[in-house]
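Chain X:
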Amino acid sequence: MLFAVPPKFVSRNFKDKIFLQVGTSSALKVHYFGSPRPTAELSFNGRPFPDDKLDISATVVSITLHDIDRSDSGVYTVDLHNVLGRDKIDIEVVVIGKIYQSVR
């Protein structure tokens, strides 16, 4: 038996800011359920964001950022929708400078 359900993010674990370091790469992953498989759209600070940064599998939406710099700081919004409904989640990213160790 197949079930049809609107998309829903499983966890809202992005209540706090996500801190990423300049010059690194990262994949922000969010788990969801929904059937039929939803379509995902990504925006950054309210503007559409390139689709090549977004990957959707059967249960995970992943935002991939490479060679991170300070301009990557902001709010990423993932919007999932299928014929039964939609769900959105905001992920606030703060990019910090490189961390240097003192040499003694």
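Chain Y:
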Amino acid sequence: MNDVSIVAVATLTIADTGRPIVLRTKYILLQRNGGLRIGSETQPHTSPLEIILYGRSDDPHVHPVFGRKFIGVDSTASIDIHGPWKLSWTFLATTLQPGI
């Protein structure tokens, strides 16, 4: 797949099928009230899901705002991603020094 563009009040909802899903694309662009939904607060997406953005740094197709490989969302669109809860931080054993 070269690109995923979701526009004009459309929504892409990724189903939680219990099977792994791989979405391989150059970019995902959400505009004009478009939406991307993966799970919800009450039903988090628990199946393996991988979004792979591919492409070359010298690709001649360049989006004027987002560039070459991106998940881009304009001010009217939205992304909702909900997966299983997990701790997203930790305590450090020692203090880190800036620039090291």
